[in-house]
Hints:
Layout: H1 3-24, H2 34-44, E1 47-53, H3 58-67, H4 71-80, E2 81-87, H5 96-100, H6 102-111, E3 119-123, E4 129-134, H7 139-147, H8 156-167, H9 171-183, H10 187-200, H11 207-215, H12 223-230, H13 232-239, H14 243-256, H15 269-279, H16 281-299, H17 302-316, H18 322-335, H19 339-355, H20 360-372, H21 376-391, H22 398-414
Parallel strand pairs: 1-2
Antiparallel strand pairs: 1-3, 3-4
Amino acid sequence: MNLQKLTLFFCLMLATLTVSAQDEGIRFTHGLSWKAVLEKAKRENKYIFVDCFTTWCGPCKMMSRDIFPQKNVGDFFNEKFVSVKMQMDRTAKDDEEVKARYADADFLAKEYAVMAYPTFLYFTPQGKLVHLVVGTDSAKGFIAKSAAAFDPETQYYTRMENARKEVGSDPEKVKSLVREAKKVYDGVNMTKLMKTWLQVMPDVYNKEDLAFLDEMTMRSEDPGFTIFLRQPAKVDAVMGKGFSAKKTGQIIAGEELYSKWKGEGEPDMKGLESALKKKYPQQAGKLFGMFRLNVYQRNGQWDKFQAEARRFVEKYGAEIAPAELSSLAGSIARNCSDPACLQSALKWSRQAMEAEASEPMIKSVYAHLLYRLDRKPEGIALQKEVVAAYAASTEKSGEYMLKSAKQLLEKMEKGEKTWKN
């Protein structure tokens, strides 16, 4: 056999082995819409298995790489399920099949309140959601958890449906079920149970119940979001000034801004700002201003960052939490050299210090800015206080923060450069 034929022989062998290996694992359906998948499952009298994943999710990749291709996994799923991979995020590299399923992925994410990745959903041949598994597992463990989808006694959603009926309107029992749903990332029952809990509670405007509401509010679809958004004065009277704005702001920014920006390049600023103003007009100005600052910071656009930071603080200074104000000042201390901007940052840092004088991190930013503005003895003396505070701290992060504070102090004492630009 000559070299050319030998090469062809090995290529064919490799292709055969690759196809064989792929056939041994789960055979996912391709080219079918969600509606077509439902029809196929009903026609073949098979349950439906949906792998909800994202391109950035490490555990999702692990399951696809290490678990789904295994023969015992394939033997179990291929006999009993119509299996579907549903990509829940969008990227520039998406192929035509993924793009064709964008609408279906959005529907599944919203309809079944997907909260984490990977999430595995299990439906009956008639299309009823009956079971849920979240996270990674061994092949044996994953098969065992998936097998629970066939028995009403072990089907997660069936069991929760029965449990909801049993607890009725007992607030404490409902609260216990809410916690169980959250623990397994079950957004469907979290929402239903929270609505029940709110209906049977005469008054939630006390510290214990608002803290519970805060714990269980992670999305704009969660019932608690509406309370924090529409009743900020009543909530803040119990939880402290700015509590509601911070809670709703984190959720709104995450859903409307950061989920639509991959952290690289400059997003569609005009489009995002317009959409945000339309949906949340009262919150849009401050939230988008902070988003713009984060984009400039991530992209290293420090000239734009400095100008925007000064405008932002001038407009929203009274509403900015001390930690956020200090963070803006710290970014300028580490990355900017314009004396006028450093003076502005020093003013912001001093304002944060006056509000949170005991917080070492805020104090360290002020010390750094003093050093940057040639007030070195003052800055060094203050940074020594920061090091001492971290050395006495019993918090878990204390060791890391102590190391960072010491490194900054050493540079300051040596008169070294402490900034990037």
